[in-house]
């Protein structure tokens, strides 16, 4: 049975491990902090049982069968032994990621695929200390990966096409929805689109056009209703009698006018930002109790939405 090694046992590492065992792969979890990878398996066991009880467990195997595919390691060479694919999930710090890939290259064969879970660091920087960069890529998941299936596959300039194809097939097999970026770019695709939404939402609140509560409703009860099933391109294509070209002939002038009125990148951290932040805190206080409750609510809704889309 094929082996996948997950480097790092935090939230994202545990999520990747759960996804890979759902596809029937043997998964070795490594953490350089002694005992942490074993603790991760204990946490995963709890989650798998809960998912099985809620009839939301992914894959064809039972929770017990999936759990049997997991093993924990404190030694990097042992964790990498036999793996055909390595998914790194350590801290989002460039030097840390460069160091771990430099270390692991000593213990793996030339055909082993090395994948990073970085959310914004470009592959050319992450893998700069790797000798054989043709087998390297970024596989950027969306939090929480178990319910949000998108994975961005971002190549290094030297990544072999076969590596992208193999990773795409792997992600598809475990039930994710992989998208292929043709080249690396700062922020990849998802975070660039998200940043554009954040910037204009922030500007509208900061400029006194709309409240924090209502701009969130613009997305959750407006755009988000469609975007849960179709993207912006298809939305435009379906919103005109004759499709996308017809849509642009009708609305491109208005879109261009609006875009030209957008202001500069907002100040997210200075004095001007405080009013926006305070308004958010009034809606949802930033203490752990309130945030944890809203995070649980988010995950429950995502679970139901994932089930709806599956059905």
From TrEMBL:
Domain 3-hydroxyacyl-CoA dehydrogenase NAD binding: 4-183
GO biological process: fatty acid metabolic process
Catalytic activity, EC: 1.1.1.45
Domain of life per record: Eukaryota
Keyword Oxidoreductase: yes
Record-annotated 3-hydroxyacyl-CoA dehydrogenase C-terminal domain positions: 187-254
Keywords assigned: Cytoplasm, NAD, Oxidoreductase, Phosphoprotein, Signal
One GO CC term on file: cytoplasm
Family, similarity comment: Belongs to the 3-hydroxyacyl-CoA dehydrogenase family.
Protein name in the entry: L-gulonate 3-dehydrogenase
Provenance organism: Neolamprologus brichardi
């Amino acid at each position: 049975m094929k082996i996948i090694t997950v480097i790092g046992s935090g939230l994202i590492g545990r999520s990747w491990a759960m996804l890979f065992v759902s596809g029937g792969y043997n998964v070795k979890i490594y953490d350089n902090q002694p005992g942490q990878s074993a603790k991760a398996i204990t946490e995963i066991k709890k989650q798998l049982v809960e998912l099985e009880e809620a009839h939301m467990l992914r894959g064809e195997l039972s929770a017990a069968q999936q759990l049997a595919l997991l093993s924990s390691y404190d030694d990097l060479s042992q964790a990498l032994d036999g793996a055909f694919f390595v998914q790194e999930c350590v801290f989002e710090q460039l030097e840390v990621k460069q160091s771990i890939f430099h270390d692991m290259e000593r213990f793996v064969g030339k055909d082993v695929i090395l994948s990073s879970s970085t959310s914004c660091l470009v592959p050319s920087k992450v893998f700069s200390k790797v000798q054989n960069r043709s087998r390297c890529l970024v596989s950027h998941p969306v939090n929480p990966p178990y319910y949000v299936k998108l994975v961005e596959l971002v190549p290094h300039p030297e990544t072999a096409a076969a590596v992208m194809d193999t990773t795409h097939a792997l992600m598809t097999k475990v039930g994710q929805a992989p998208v292929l970026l043709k080249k690396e770019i700062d922020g990849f695709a998802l975070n660039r689109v998200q940043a554009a939404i954040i910037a204009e939402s922030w500007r509208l609140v900061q400029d006194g056009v709309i409240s924090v509560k209502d701009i969130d409703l613009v997305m959750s009860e407006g755009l988000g209703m469609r975007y849960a099933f179709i993207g912006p391109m298809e939305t435009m294509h379906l919103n005109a009698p004759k499709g996308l070209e017809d849509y642009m002939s009708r609305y491109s002038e208005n879109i261009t006018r609006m875009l030209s009125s957008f202001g500069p990148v907002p100040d997210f951290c200075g004095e001007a930002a405080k009013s926006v932040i305070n308004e958010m805190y009034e809606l949802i206080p930033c203490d752990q109790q309130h945030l944890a409750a809203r995070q649980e609510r988010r995950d429950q809704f995502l679970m139901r939405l994932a089930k709806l889309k599956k059905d």
